[in-house]
């Protein structure tokens, strides 16, 4: 499944690191379903494994205030170099913040207090057999686009086809196992699958945004522009200034406002995003009242900047809200497509030059813990040595894996205890020598070619230079020449989409129910697909097979064990120098904003908040 975020889920329109993936689907024409298909029961919701938590006829999610008042405004900031598109589904351009979440509804709605369950939104019910070889969605008669036109099965088919042929490559990868789409009636649409082992597919099809076929009939989907589009969601674009701000207005006649999955949500009459090119300026603007809510990513800011009378008297609230979602992996990502990083020994060596303990103490006020898993803060993370079912899975590939996978627990290099930076740099030097490098005239060069070991770290946030520069200095002690290039966010997006970098700092998000998205992170088929999220260029047949096993996991326990095996193999590939994580959302907000007492396991979601009258 796609990963959760602090504010609206589904496909991120804010991220500078695009959602991309794998080509490989050609939609089929309408056809009659196999008459021998298993009879299925229409249900109100689906769980990835087991039964959904909420029963048929439930009134609202437990983590919302069903009586939250409607009204007021929410003002937000985006730190970026603007936007040039209102199409969040295209690989081209940079879409405005919030557009995919506020303008477009999906077939099903995600529950934030379960590992992965979906409930009817546009679809009032779902049918899928035990083997999940197909799924049928029955649409609500009341579902409407914002011009009043009903949402039909033809719109669903149109959305699937245009997203997988003209949309972001992410969609082609995500829905690659769909073999046929059949419109069975105006309010009934069926998706057949190439295989019955992809149990997640009925749920992630429910995440698909539904676009109006009649609106796009005489418009060019590929053409980016700033004409406000039409959707079916709770808001429409009421105003914008190109590249600088966008305003969403809540629709009083929103068709889904009384549904259980919408009770207590989307409470603000107006939501406004203003763009800032500098985070320091944005922070001061927040404290001056220019916007209402801030998610703080800087430990230094959290420790030092949220002080003063407004915080003391309660005008602004500073709150660290605990969450239980996987924190994923943030780190320095090696682009293994580049020759300089093609050898895992080199990648491992460089990881010994990053001093997390010094960084955490001197830059982050001791707020973070070291990350040692791609699925950190969850039961999916590999720990210790493999055993039991995880070991059985890994043993299938033993002759293709390093013996260290089985004999050494993965632990990111540390400078605490008996370890120190000096010892770590000695270890790095030994690894580099074993990879064919040596020191000549103070420079690390390849023994045979004489080519210096040098590379560039690409950044778009100036504030991150204080993290990168100590790493650069430690690498210099090894004779490695590192340059740091700071570019604006738009240039950064384009370079990352084209894999035009040696090393980047990247957060690779994960959910509590990994599945089809793992293809675009790690599968060899995405290595050369511009815009894919295979940032490291992972190209390993064992990883390919483990990704498929994760997608095909028949139950929760098997998913956990297969994911741990994948995690362990990725860690031993040394594709990333792991950074750190925090199992809390650090937020600050003006006192007129309120949130429910119960926070779901996935953490803060502003769509559940409201403004005090």
What attributes characterize this protein structure?
single chain; 613 residues; D-Maltodextrin-Binding Protein, domain 2; Dipeptide-binding Protein, domain 3; 3 domains; five-stranded mixed beta sheet; 18 helices; 24% helix; 20% strand; globular
What does this structure look like?
With 613 residues, the chain is of the alpha+beta class. The protein folds into 3 domains: 42-66 and 82-217, D-Maltodextrin-Binding Protein, domain 2; 235-324 and 584-611, D-Maltodextrin-Binding Protein, domain 2, CATH 3.40.190; 329-581, Dipeptide-binding Protein, Domain 3 (Dipeptide-binding Protein, domain 3, Roll), CATH 3.10.105.10. The chain has 18 helices and 25 strands. The strands form 8 sheets. The chain has a 5-stranded mixed beta sheet with strand order 19-18-20-14-21. Helix 14 (465-476) links the parallel strand 18 (454-459) and strand 19 (481-486). Helix 17 runs antiparallel to helix 18. The longest helix has 17 residues, at 556-572. InterPro entries: Peptide/Ni-bd (IPR030678), SBP_5 (IPR039424), SBP_5_dom (IPR000914). One of its GO terms (biological process) is peptide transport. GO terms for molecular function: peptide transmembrane transporter activity. This is ABC transporter substrate-binding protein. Residues 1-28 form the signal peptide.
């Amino acid at each position: 499944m796609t990963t959760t975020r602090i504010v609206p889920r589904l496909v991120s329109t804010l991220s500078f690191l695009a959602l991309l993936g794998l080509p490989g689907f050609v939609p089929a024409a309408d056809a009659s379903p196999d008459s021998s298909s298993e009879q299925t029961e229409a249900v109100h919701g689906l769980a990835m494994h087991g039964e959904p938590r909420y029963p048929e006829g439930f009134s609202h999610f437990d983590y919302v205030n069903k009586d939250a008042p409607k009204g007021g405004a929410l003002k937000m900031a985006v730190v970026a170099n603007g936007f040039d598109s209102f199409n969040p589904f295209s690989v081209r351009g940079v879409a405005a913040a919030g557009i995919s979440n506020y303008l477009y509804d999906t077939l099903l709605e995600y529950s934030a207090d379960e590992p992965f369950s979906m409930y009817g939104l546009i679809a009032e019910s779902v049918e899928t057999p035990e083997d999940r070889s197909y799924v049928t969605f029955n649409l609500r008669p009341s579902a409407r686009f914002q011009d009043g036109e009903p949402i039909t099965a033809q719109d669903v088919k149109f959305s699937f086809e245009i997203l997988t042929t003209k949309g972001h490559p992410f969609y082609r990868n995500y829905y690659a196992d769909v073999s046929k789409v059949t419109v069975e009636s105006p309010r009934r649409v069926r998706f057949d699958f190439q295989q019955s082992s992809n149990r997640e597919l009925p749920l992630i099809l429910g995440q698909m945004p539904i676009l109006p076929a009649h609106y796009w009939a005489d418009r060019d989907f590929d053409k980016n522009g700033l004409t406000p589009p039409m959707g079916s969601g709770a808001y429409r674009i009421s105003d914008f200034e190109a590249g600088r701000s966008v305003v969403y207005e809540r629709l009083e006649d929103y068709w889904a406002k009384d549904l259980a999955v919408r009770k207590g949500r989307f409470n603000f009459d107006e939501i406004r995003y203003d763009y800032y090119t500098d985070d320091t300026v944005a922070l001061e603007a927040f404290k001056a009242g220019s916007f209402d809510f801030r998610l703080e990513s800087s430990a230094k800011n959290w420790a030092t900047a949220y002080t003063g009378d407004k915080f003391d008297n309660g005008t602004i609230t500073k709150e660290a809200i605990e969450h239980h979602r996987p924190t994923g992996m943030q780190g320095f990502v090696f682009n293994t497509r580049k020759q300089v990083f093609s050898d895992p020994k080199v990648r491992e060596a460089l990881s010994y030059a990053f001093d997390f303990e010094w960084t955490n103490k001197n830059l982050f006020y001791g707020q973070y813990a070291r990350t040692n898993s791609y699925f950190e803060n969850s039961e999916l993370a590999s720990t210790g040595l493999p055993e039991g079912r995880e070991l059985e899975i890994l043993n299938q590939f033993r002759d293709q894996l390093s013996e260290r996978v089985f004999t050494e627990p993965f632990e990111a290099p540390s400078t605490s205890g008996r370890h120190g930076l000096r010892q770590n740099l000695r270890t790095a030097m030994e690894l580099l020598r074993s990879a064919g490098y040596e020191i000549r005239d103070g420079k690390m060069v390849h023994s045979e070619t004489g080519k210096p070991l040098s590379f560039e770290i690409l950044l778009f946030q100036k504030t991150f230079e204080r993290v990168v520069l100590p790493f650069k200095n430690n690498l210099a002690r090894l004779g490695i020449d590192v340059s740091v290039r700071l570019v604006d966010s738009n240039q950064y997006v384009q370079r990352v989409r084209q894999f035009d970098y040696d090393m980047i700092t990247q957060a690779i998000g994960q959910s509590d129910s990994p599945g089809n998205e793992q293809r675009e992170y790690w599968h060899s088929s995405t290595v050369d697909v511009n815009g894919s999220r295979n940032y490291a260029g992972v190209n390993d047949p064992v990883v390919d097979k483990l990704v498929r096993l994760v997608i095909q996991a028949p139950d929760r326990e098997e998913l956990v064990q297969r994911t741990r095996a994948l995690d362990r193999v990725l860690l031993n590939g040394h594709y990333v120098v792991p950074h750190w994580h925090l199992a809390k959302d650090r937020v600050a907000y003006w006192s007129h904003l309120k949130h429910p007492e119960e926070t779901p396991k996935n953490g803060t979601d502003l769509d559940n908040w409201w403004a005090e009258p």
